[in-house]
Every structure is written in structure tokens, then in C-alpha cells.
């Protein structure tokens, strides 16, 4: 209830604001009529909700000693009153100030993000997955590897041309991949167990066709060290362990190179954009090396093996991980599954072509699955799904290590075939020319040559 002595607000009148202003007055006249001589007190109170025109002071309008005191402290223009102003929405302002500044991602943080740690918002990741947007725009590693492999292929062709007169081998046998001779491929770094360890039934004194030999049967023979190259052996026994790695960068010929690069610059490149370059290079090398380890155990000893197929099959395996983990986000997943099955069957069939090792394909695919489970960024929408994913990751790491250790140890045994006598047929189609995939694959003629 209001007191009878309390002053009442007067009704607002527009005419009072326009007193003395006539129609047609210029802007200058209006400004002049509103101006205040220097030194006069022209106090506007902003806190009252309207502008107080030059006239009665706030003390006259409101009989409030406390307000008068505040007006006097504010001085001319009420400068101190500005200090008491607050934003209309303090919560938004404070929240914006409290939000941490996003720092530039370091290589380690990007690696963790690629492994599924510290991801972007869930809705954003799902949207990017549906739209086919990866973690990076360009597959730099895939491009770089393609350039390196092209340079190595040119080296192989030059090596064969230097020794046989032509970059492509036509004698003693034709290379169906349009590439160097078998001896040239071994000399360039193919996976060839006789250059890596002692092979049972193959004395170190065995002579092999020289790189420049074109006769059939060969008439120019060289020692194993000469054919293996790389400065020979550091001891009396073959010890070129690096042949588990070098075959990844070699190709049997022009056709082999074009087929692999077609896959690498399309399917593998997409995997790199999804994983990021760091995770991709780990996957690529792990799959390629393990494929050569598996082939070294069970493929025919006499058959040199080269190619990036194992590493590429590792990237194909990651595409399978992606399909299974993100089935609901894939565009036409059934059609994609059918295409991937056909692609896998064709790749296995190519593994029976000379100089191409199917064990590299199988081993690369297997290791690709394990590395893909560990490093591929999987979208988890529930806590249970996240726990399952990490359980698979924790199981895949020791399994991959055990496979490497066990198979490398088995490779250096005198008879690695004993671990799986039928496995050789996964990469060898039995014919009379390869003794129906029996023995080491070497043949001995009257000159004592064996290859």
C-alpha cells in the first residue's frame, strides 16, 4: 500500500520533449536548442530507465536521500554509474570466459586421437563418417610410397638392362610381369631364404646363375654371395635379415607395379585419410613385414618374393574393420561387403602368379586386422560398446607380438615347413615345373647349378 505523502509519477508527454521546437527547424537549430552552456550541471540518470531531460534533478523527482547521495558521488554525467552496469545474460558471458582455449594439436595428441583417444564430438564424428570425411584431406604417405616404389622399379629395370642388355627379361625365361630376371630381383633385395639363413639341403658352395646369364641351362655361374649382393655376408653364413623389409618396395615388373599402385592410391589412400598418416605407416609396415615373415616360413625356398601386396592387403583388412564396426553408418553396406569379398578373392588368386607370394597377402591381411583393431578410430555410442572395443584392442596387441616372435623363431629353424606341411599349397599351385610344390623348389642339372 502506497503512502499518501509518496510522490506520484507524472504522465509522460511527448510534447514536453519537443517544447520550443517548431516544424521545419533545422538539425543545427535543434542541436543548439538542446546544448548546455559549459559549466552548467546537465545530469542524466541512466539507471532510472529513461533519459532525464535538462530540468528537474533526480532529487526533485524522487525524495530519496540515498539516491541523491549516489547522484552526487557520480559527478557530472554519472560516470560511476556505468561501473554498476551488468550484462543482461551473465551466464553466457561467464561460460564463454571459462571455456578453455583450444591449443594446437601436437603430433602425440593427433596420434592418440587417431587411436580413438580424445575424439571430436560424437555427433560430428558420426556425420563425418556418413559423409566419408576422414581425419586428413590428403594421403601423403601413400603418395610418397608410390614415388619411392616407382624409383625402385626404375632401378630394377636399369639393373637388368645393365646385365642383360634389356630392362625386361626375355631370357632364359620371360618375366610375365614385364620386369627383371629372377637373379636381378634377388640381387635387388627380394625375400630369398638362401640369402637370409642356412637352408637344409642347400650347401653354401652351390652355384647360381649370374645376373648377366641368358642361356638355358645357364652357362655363367656365380656364388650365392654374388647373387645376393649388398656386400655379401658379414660371416660365413647368410645373414641378410633385412629381406623381410626390402621386398615391400620392390615389384616383379611393370604390370605388378601398376596393379599394386592402383590399389594403393585408391583403397589404401582412403584408409590413410581415415586413420591419419602416423597410424597408416605403422599399419603398412607391420602388415608388409609380417606377410614376408609368414611367406619365409611356408613358401617354397627357391621362389623369390617381392611386392607391396602384403602391406596393401593390410590396408584392405582395415576396411573390413571399418565395415564391421560402422555398419549402421555405411552407405549401402551389403553392396560394399559383396565388392570387398570379390576384391579379396581376386587378390588371393593373383598370389599364385610367379614372383607373387600369397603368404604375403594372407599374412598382411591378418596383421592388418590386428593393427586395425588397435589403431583404427572406432565410433562408440555406448559405454558397453567402448568397453568391447578396448577389450579387442588389448587382446590384439599381445597376439600380434606373439605371432611375430613365434614365426621369426620358426623361420630360423632347419625345417620351418614341419610346423605346417600343407600350408605351402596356399601359395603354390602344384605342377610338374615346381615338383608339385614338394621339397625346396630347387632343381639340379648336370652342371651342378641349382635354382
Automatic annotation (TrEMBL):
Transmembrane segments: 138-158, 241-263, 275-294, 306-325, 337-353, 359-379, 391-412
GO cellular component labels: membrane
Biased composition (Polar residues): 26-35
GO MF entries: serine-type endopeptidase activity
EC number: 3.4.21.105
Keyword Protease annotated: yes
Membrane topology: Multi-pass membrane protein
Keyword Hydrolase listed: yes
GO process annotations (BP): proteolysis
Basic and acidic residues bias: start-end ranges: 1-13
Keywords: Hydrolase, Membrane, Protease, Serine protease, Transmembrane, Transmembrane helix
Ranges of residues in domain Peptidase S54 rhomboid: 239-376
Similarity section: Belongs to the peptidase S54 family.
Name the record gives this protein: Rhomboid-type serine protease
The species this protein was found in: Phanerochaete sordida
